[in-house]
Structures are given as structure tokens and as C-alpha cells.
Amino acid sequence: MTNSCAVNPVTGKKQIVLMSEEQEIAMGKDADPQIVAQYGLYENKALQDFITKKGNEMAAISHRPGLKYEFKIVDSDVLNAFAVPGGYVYFTRGIMAHFNNEAEFAGVLGHEIGHITARHSVSQQTKAVLGQVGLIGSMILVPQVADFAEPLSQGLGLLFLKFGRDAERQSDELGVEYSSRIGYDAHEMAGFFNTLERKSAGTGAAELPDFLSTHPNPGERNITVNNLSVEWKKKLNLNNPTVNRNNYLRMIEGLIYGEDPKQGFLEKDVFYHPELKFQFPTPAGWNYQNTPQRVQLAPKDGKAILMMTLGSGKTLQDAMNTMIQNNNLQVVESNPVTVNGLNAMSVIADVKPQQGQQSSSVRTLSYYIQYNQNIYVLLGASSTADFNNYSGIFTQTMKNFKELSDPSKLNKQPERIRIKTVGTTGTLRQALATFKVPEGRMEELSILNGMQLTDQVQKGSLIKIIAN
Predict the structure, then answer these.
(1) Averaged over 329-343, what is the pLDDT?
(2) What is the DSSP letter of 86?
(3) In this structure, are 160 and 41 located in the same domain?
(4) What pLDDT sits at residue 217?
(5) Residue of 109, 45, 42 lying closest to 81 (CA atoms)
(6) Residue 464: strand pairing partners
């Protein structure tokens, strides 16, 4: 690791950094395949071409045009965008669904490129702060369970860093500058903060770090960004900045909204996976996260975790041995069992005590179940003291793993963004009602459209609704 003074490309000032640009690029290159494996890419050529084109345009006028940037859409419905060192920028399909024009997108794109050009993630290394993915949002676990679950839940040290407020403000400034320089109206970026704030107010868990988690107060950001956008318009003589609302909305027609059922979905405390054809019940009221690699559940108090993933190896014994070895477990007892006619093993194991500890602080119950060429591992963990309170809940889920045969679940289709033309001038509420949007989803749709239900929409304008 290099400990040296380097000139910050954005500020022009010297700063102490712990790595060279080569190391920074290598870090991003190493993280990228792990991020793609964790979340999957959203396959949509038109959208992918759009973010690559705009990203490259913006990178070219940024403070670090020499980096090789990559821009990707990850298959997550969480509303977020993030960057890792070396030029890698990611947008979730969830955030792409919530933009209402190209200018909003461009502002957030500039913000993320700003983190890279100002070397925020690199300077963050000097403070030795490294975030983890997988157990974020409201899925906060008590320390001993978290210590066990975090390496188990990813096996990769992803570089999602929580930046300080000064870094976030600087990235906002760069977002305004960069989006203005490629001709967009950065005023729209300020409006998007309202969408972020309204959306985050109604959600709990997130599988990615919340875009607002360490950011300055959204109201304050809105004012600052508005003022900066006016300044940059004057500076660049930008008299007719681009917004491109209709063009953007037509581009996201058909975008999957919310969970994609084929990757598994939760409905009335049962998790269904149509592609792998299995189901199991989940504890009522527990927080839930689903990624391509695992399903995770935790009670609100964070005193336990329950997860399902694919086992390694060809036999139940192989899968058990791998799990035991990888997670430093000590078997207390193991028994062959049958789960709804499927061969399985039930294992109670403790995390091996660390040096100086008399006994283990975490106990686990896991079932290894052989089904359709795969071995599924369902594992529950809690502190040893709490284990008896949770073992029955773990067992209830594990013993009821079974084949999914219900056609309505197997064939469940995702909801998608549909773009509609307003027939009559009136309020957004009236417009949504003409497209038969249920009353219970009116507020959700108003946030999705970046508007209030009382806002006027003109005849002939485009709005988003949700349909299969």
C-alpha cells in the first residue's frame, strides 16, 4: 500500500492517500464481478446503451477523463445508484424507474462520477471505513449475530463506502457541474431529491446502502443544488438546457418494477421461487431481503438471522462440511431427516469460541435439503442465550420447505412500468383514476411520477402507471 501525497484532481490540493491510481483501478476491477454476481445485471439494451453513452460523454468532460469508466444497471428494485473506485458506476433498475426525465438521471450520474473523480473512496480508505452489503437498511443485527452473519452472507468485501457529508456535498456540486456541461438542466436533480426523500420515508430494509443514508438533509440539498444550477447555466450560457421527459419515459416503457417473481418473491409469509420450483414459509413480520445469491430474514430486534442459499458439493455431507469449514463451526449434533419426502440433514453447530472465550456466543441450526439436482441450505443463527427462543421458528421454516406446484405462483408475472397519455387536463389523481389505479397505490404512483396527487397534468402529457 502506498502512503503518499497526491494532488486531488478536483480540488487541485494535495491530500494524503493510501493507494496509487493503479491500486484504485485494481480495487474496482476486483469488486465489479462480485457486484454483478451479487445482484445480477438488468438486461435492457436500449437503457444500457443510453447510460453508457451519457456516462462516456460525462466522463470525457470530468476531472479524470483518462480513467476507463464502466456503467451498469443492476437487477435490484432498491432505489439507488453507487460507484466504486477506478471508474465503475451502477444504477439499480429501481432508481431508473423513478427518474422522470433524462436531466434527473444526468444529475445523479454526475454525482456518482464525482465520487470517483474526487477520489472520495480512496481518501475514505485513510479513515479505514469499509461498508458491507447484505445486512444493511433496517436489517441491523445484534453484534454477535452480525459478526457471524456478515462474512456468511457475502464472502466478499464489497466496497460500498459511506461518505461523509462534505464528500456528498462535493459530489452534488460535481453532479450539477458535469450534467450542466453536457447540456442538461441540473435544476431537475434538485427535484429528484424530493422523490428520494418521499420514497425513503416509506421504506425500511434495503439490500444496498440507502442513497440518503449519509447525505445532507434533502431540503438543504435541494436549495443548494438549485442555486448551483442557476450559477452553471449563467457560466455556460446554457439558455435552453435539456430535460427530455418524454424521451426518457418512452425508454423505460416495460421496465420491471418491484420484485421480479422469477427470482423468487414473498407473498403472505411464504417465499416462492418459480424457476427453482420450491417454497417455504417465513416468520411473520421479519425483515426480508432477496438477492440472486441468497434469501435473508431477520426479526425487527435483530436477535437472529435466517437465510437460504445453495450448498456446495454433490452430497448432503459435502454441503455440510463446506459450510462448517467456511464458517468456523463446531457440530453439536447432526441427524439424517426427511423434509416433505426429500432427503435432508439437520445440524446444530456452534461458532467455535475465540481465544479467551469459555463458550460459543452463537448457535446455528441448519437443514441441508436435496431437491432437483441442488442442495439447499437453510440456516438460522442467534446468540446461544437466545437460541431456544428461535429454534422453533427456524424449524418451522425448514421442515416446511417443499416443491412448488401451484400454477398461479409458477406463472406469476412481474409488474412493469407502463407509459400512458393523459386524455383530459386535471389532477394527477384524476389521471391515475382513469387508468384504474387502485386508491391504495395512489401515493406510491405519485412518488413514481415525481409529483403530488393534486398537481395538474395536461391533456396529451405522459405519465407512468404499473401493470403486468
Answers:
(1) 96
(2) T
(3) yes
(4) 60
(5) 109
(6) 419
